[in-house]
């Protein structure tokens, strides 16, 4: 019974982290699905969302506003607005001027934007870790103190519910809205969509905005879960989310969701049964193993060359 409770504890921890990886990974996979490029500045957009939420929470606390629902809603709105604006700016500054050129040029441009944003936050907020207030405390505990007390915290439940709502809303938006149908058309054939009257520039900008908004949600959730943020907060999470997107199949939204969950569970199980020092080794080894047998990822589809 103790071993079973310990297993489920690691599973819950892995699904918690994996859910946020999935939210960030969607930004990578949507941009790649639309324009066939990797937005390496996406991790920094997520980091800026976390800092914005922290600043909003601190400002409300200074004003004496401590009602939890209001604090969370205001912090989320501020984070989404700033991150989505940053995502739009990244597309306009780093991608649109070099779109259509050799793929190496937008890649270098995105890496340059990533370094710029990281150092901007480093100068503006300092290099030290900043504590993120634990707004949601408490949880449920199962088992007894004599064996292994499995617990699931309220913040973990919040992460699960928020991720489920975001994923459902995104799926409905992509499948039923006019902009969502335009996104699917542009991802299939950008040139033909342009000829048919779709404003492809607007659709590409909308893709960056949607991905940045989801990253802002993940920034707020992970900030509360870990309890601190720093300028490298986005680089590590962005790298893991990109790995999750490739693992599930870059360009596939369900693949990004699945890849994030698998990566989170793999890291948690490794930390729980081996050592936290090996979690990255196991995660990237799993990625290599899957790509050896399925190069397009778990749910990815091979690209068909149009001639």
From TrEMBL:
Main location: membrane
Membrane topology: Multi-pass membrane protein
InterPro entries: ABC_transp_permease, BCAA_transport_permease
Sequence intervals crossing the membrane: 20-38, 45-65, 71-90, 102-121, 154-174, 203-226
Location in the cell: Cell inner membrane
Alphabetic keyword roster: Amino-acid transport, Cell inner membrane, Cell membrane, Membrane, Transmembrane, Transmembrane helix, Transport
Coiled coil: none
Keyword Iron: no
Taxonomy, superkingdom: Bacteria
Family label: Belongs to the binding-protein-dependent transport system permease family. LivHM subfamily.
Annotated protein name in UniProt: High-affinity branched-chain amino acid ABC transporter permease LivH
The species this protein was found in: Marinobacter daepoensis
